[in-house]
């Protein structure tokens, strides 16, 4: 028996969660973080898009007051045909007119997802990925 990993139970529920943060670079809005010289952007729409052959999955969520988003699949969404290489996260536009120029990643490029950890939830296990930071900036920094 040495070195063998036990088989997981057959009824293990497994979902995916992808998290990230949306920032406004250089503007001192509510929640300004000096270490990154940016303020969180609440109410930004984040999109998880996975594509493989004829399969496609698109899920949205909105950032909270800290600019944080968590996009989660549920037990009824089919994620098994995808690998992390098939998926990207997009923040198509900033919710702030004063901070609307995409800096990183560039517009329409999206951010690849990277596995971080497993998170036990009440009746399932979730694979948690990160899409990292999304940064917008003002067209004119003097107008923050």
Automatic annotation (TrEMBL):
GO terms for cellular component: cell periphery. This is Pollen Ole e 1 allergen and extensin family protein. It holds the Pfam family Pollen_Ole_e_1. Keywords: Signal.
